[in-house]
Amino acid sequence: MNKRRITFLRRTVQILCLVMLVYGGYIFKVKHHTTQQANLFPALKAPEGYISTTKFDRGSILWPSGDNPVLENYPPGLVCRFNPRGGLFKACIVHFISENLTWRTSFKYLLPHLTLFMLLCFLFGRLWCRWACPIGTVGDFLTMLRKKMNIPSRKFPAGFRNGLRSGSYCILGTSFFISALIGVPHLARFQCYWFLPYCQICPARLICPIFGLIKPGWKDFETAITTMFTILAWLVLGIFVAAFYWGRRIWCHLCPVGLMNSWFNRGAGVELKKISVKCNKCGLCTEACPMGLTEMFEKKTDGVFNQSGCIMCLRCVEICPRDGCLSANFFGRKIVESRLKK
Amino acid sequence: MKNKEYLREDYAKTLKFFSKGKDSPEIPGNSEAIEKYRKLSGLKETDFFYDAFLKAKSTIPEKEKKPVAGYFCNTVPEELLLACGVHPVRLCSADSHCAECGEEAIPGDICPMVKAACGDFFHDFNRMMDLLIIPATCDGRVKLAEILSPVAKDIYFIDIPRNTDYLENVNIWEKEYTKFFDYLKSKFKVKPARREILDACVQTNERTRMYRKIYEARAKKPGIMNAFDYFIMANSSFFLSPAEWTEKASLLYREISGREQEPGRKKILLAGSPVVFPNFKILDILGDAGCCVSADVVCSAYGRLYDPVEIDEETESGIIRALSLKYVAPSICPCFVGIDKLINTVLDSVERYGLDGVIYYNIRLCQVFEMASGVLRSVLKDRDIPFLFLKTDFSKEDTGQLKTRVEAFMEMLG
């Protein structure tokens, strides 16, 4: 009906990112094998004696980083290690930190990778979540399916969203705690089953292998612990599907990777601004917000809108019918501002 | 129950008795007024709108060949009516003759708009209407629904929670509108598809776009179109179908965009009560005093046409929510909670178009408008924007006095 330029651009970028992140390993395979210098920083390897258990065979779901990725770096967004051929990048930041907590890697080796992550977050904040995250793109297909079926979306109160965020902290904390615990030499025998605890329950574990038509770890019921993780993963996948089907991006409040990105959301390069005198309080920004944030509507003063929940989809800027009321800025320079659709 | 029915019938008879002799298709005095304003207009394309008013509403049923539904106030979603194949007509009237007729049913110190609406209903056309829709926005409307219920063929009442600062209310608005839509479907025995509502939204959005062009052209170049033409054009959207209105307004836009602005005119923002034909008393006074009403924040023009329907999700629920966010949430009427919308709009317009002052027009006996004026006055005083509050009704008695006040205000502007 109306020209939705930002949505069109975003969908294009999302699909490009999905293809690149999932099939990048195939596309750039030749280049990778010829030039090992493709990496921005030296890849971190597991120290001797830590990953020696039989569980980590090639092809196993716990094979670190799958096959060879093109770049052994960790960008923001859910760039999954379960991608076929490793995808374009190695894994997400939660994987990176969990892995290195277990390996007890020295901080100076982590620093370049963390700096890259923080720099990208500093530039774009949580924009990665909506524009690049491949799992989010998959979820958006579910949302599109719901719209086609004429089913209204569910709205969630602020308390529920805050609850999800607390849940996200719990998941992240538990995951890092377990990772650090099994890094203690005395407990190394637990590594074969408890390695990367979040990755084992992440919905991407079950979704990403589908893209590569490879044997996924869907039915990993060998021992009690793997059975527990597999069942948990299926449960989480169920929540993921339900969340994206009915709640648009409500899942992103629970995602630990998004949580880590959101720490850099305030003061990020991309920011939304509101000129409240131009606002007529129609509430369309809240109606259109996939994260269900109401702060843009409630804001009664001029200035930057930075919420840790905001994923910079710019949908509010696009839908706002008041000329110049909302705008997206990149380091103070206006990129796009709201206006009446032609 | 029987007793109640008897009373209703009796009441209907009484009303008919009162209105006896006033059943004329034409409201006296209107054609003279139209000819007077037509002469003042220097534009060719406004003729269509004046003619539309001259023929008034009596020709609508034959012309549209559709069921006709009348409604009061700005919060009835026209798109739903259009989707059901019904022609919507906004009945808000400001006719002093109708107000006199209405006095018999509604005596006392009541808002003259409500009296006029009641009196207007005694005319033949209005009773021919298939459906009367009344939203519960102000107290006058609520009682009007009950007074008119014996006279109208069918009446539907939309309950609208008035706190627009609290977004949980969108759910209630959605529920009310959905109920209303279901009622329309069962009454007119239609089953409109989602596509049809979207088409209706496209029509009204086209209208909004055209209106905004004209609004901005007028605000930026004062004098290219006088206030009478502008309000006649805006008010004719009460009963013209959106497509027809847009077509004629685009011709008008082409004509005015070629004109040059008149230099040296003081630009005024008109805020407050609705200005509805034929009550152009305030425009007459302002015109005589030589000020140019180049922008307005009243519900019969700006409030009705400025905001589009923006649909986020094209599900039926999503469309209806979007409608409630067009009609209720941004409403500038002081009956709703959220005066900051009115203040924001006034401040923004003054800043954006470089206006010289604000005139707040208040129809006597509307308390909420009067209450809002105090807040607006203090806010504008802080920002050194000249503000004039005018309180009047439909009668011509205080014209001289108001004119003196406006002239003094204009002198103050320099």
The string of secondary-structure elements of chain A, in order, is HHHHHHHHHHHHEHHEHEE
Overall tally of structural domains of chain B: 1
**Distance from first to last alpha carbon of chain A:** 10 Å
Bin the helical content of chain B.
Answer: 40-55%
Strand content of chain B: 5-15%
- Report, as a whole number of angstroms, the end-to-end distance of chain B: 66 Å
Radius of gyration of chain A, in Å, reads 21 Å
Classification by helices and strands of chain B: alpha/beta
**Number of separate structural domains of chain A:** 2
Specify the biggest β-sheet of chain B: 4 strands, parallel
| Approximate shape of chain B | globular
**Total E-strand runs of chain A:** 4
Q: What share of the residues of chain A does DSSP label as strand, in percent? A: 5-15%
**Oligomeric state:** heterodimer
Poorly predicted runs of 5 or more residues of chain A: 32-38, 52-59
| SSE pattern of chain B, N- to C-terminal | HHHHEHEHHHEHEHHHHEHEHHHEHEH
The helix-and-strand class of chain A reads mainly alpha
Output the strand order for the largest sheet of chain B: 2-1-3-4
Provide keyphrases for this structure.
heterodimer; A: 342 residues; mainly alpha; Alpha-Beta Plaits; 2 domains; four-stranded antiparallel beta sheet; 15 helices; 4 strands; B: alpha/beta; four-stranded parallel beta sheet; 54% helix
